[in-house]
Input
Amino acid sequence: MVESAESTATLQDVFHAFNAGAKDMDNRQFAKCTKDCGLLDKKLTTTDVDLIFNKVKNNPSIRKINFKQFEEAVAQFATKKGISEDDVKAIMISKGGPTFTGTKADSVKFHDDKSTYTGTHTKGGPTTVDNKINDLSQLADRSSADVRGVKK
Output
C-alpha cells in the first residue's frame, strides 16, 4: 500500500512537470505528456489520446483535467495498450518531465568564415555608429539660401 502512495506522488510530479506546476492540465499538455513519455504506438494513437482526454474530463465545457482524472486516463492508456497500469506509470515516472527541442542554424560559408569577406569588410568594415554627429543640426545644413538653393 505504501508503494502505491509513493508512485502516486511520483506520478503527480510527472503531472506537475508537464503542466508547469499548475493544478490542471489541458489537452495540449496531455498530448505532449504521452508523446514525450513514449506511450504512442499503433495501439495508442494521438486520436486515442484526444478521445481519452475528453472521456475523463466528463464535462464538455471544461477544458482541463485534474490529477485524479489524469490517473483515470493512465488506467485507460494501460487498457488500450494491453499492459498493466503499473507499467504505464513506470514508463511515465522514468521519463520524469517534458523534452524540449529546437532547431540549430546551419553553417553558412560566406557568413561564418571571415577569411571569405571581400571589400571594406576584410579590414573590419565601416562603423554603423558615427561618433561625430550628435544631433540633427550637424547633419542638415540650415543656412540661408536663395530661391534656387544657392547659398548666399
Remarks:
- DSSP finds seven helices and two strands in the chain.
- The longest helix spans residues 2-18.
- The mean pLDDT is 84.
